[in-house]
């Protein structure tokens, strides 16, 4: 099976469903993060931090494990949701190596966010400063890239198949990302609403 077996609306929600470990990994990192900066406070030749205090081991580990946990919950307890949307069992969507996919999606999201911070620091931007397009797509791009390289064909079946998935991600990602961050800001988890 692949996405062509589903309608446009179904495809839209399937894409959001299967990318959920990536979407939530960064949110979980905000909760677990803040301890043990990955760059250990070190600076580069431009006198700015390599990554900054916003990129920590506790965020990277917590977000990765949390994202895998999200996938596990989806796989084991999400059948009624995905069945309602697509009329299909969960196993169809996660392939033969679901935990590898969960890991790649979650770790990729955190790694993308970390890579973006590296570039933000090189532009003299401080922790939390805005970097419009990069901030919104960094995590999803790296998630897709890692899954493409290491996911054994999973991404080719479900995301790189026709234009609907990429369209979905392009439109939905900034909205979801911003939405979650506004909630995080309102409940005091995040310092900025972006
Ligand atoms: N966080 C973390 N470790 C990570 C990712 C996130 O500890 N690998 C936590 C940090 O407390 C961070 C918060 O989640 O401040 C929000 O993440 P993000 O918006 O990505 O970081 P910023 O503080 O905006 O820093 P930057 O400018 O480097 O993006
Ligand atoms: Mg930020």
Q: Can you tell me about this structure?
A:
- Helix content is 66%, strand content 0%.
- The protein is an all-alpha fold and 194 residues long.
- The chain has one domain.
- It is elongated.
- Bound molecules: cytidine-5'-triphosphate and magnesium ion (MG).
- Work out the radius of gyration: 17 Å
Task: Give the number of domains.
Answer: 1
Biggest beta sheet summary: none
Which residue ranges are poorly predicted, with pLDDT under 50 across at least 5 consecutive positions?
none
Overall mean pLDDT stands at: 94
Distance N to C terminus: 37 Å
The kinds of small molecule bound in this structure are: cytidine-5'-triphosphate, magnesium ion
Helix content: 55-70%
- How many β-strand runs? 0
Give the strand content: under 5%
Structural class: mainly alpha
- The count of helical stretches stands at 9
Give the key terms.
binds cytidine-5'-triphosphate, 194 residues, mainly alpha, 9 helices, binds magnesium ion
Task: Give the SSE layout.
Blueprint: H1 8-18, H2 20-32, H3 57-77, H4 79-86, H5 91-94, H6 98-122, H7 132-150, H8 154-158, H9 164-186
The protein binds cytidine-5'-triphosphate and magnesium ion (MG).
Q: What can be said about this structure in brief?
A:
The protein has helices spanning 8-18, 20-32, 57-77, 79-86, 91-94, 98-122, 132-150, 154-158, 164-186.
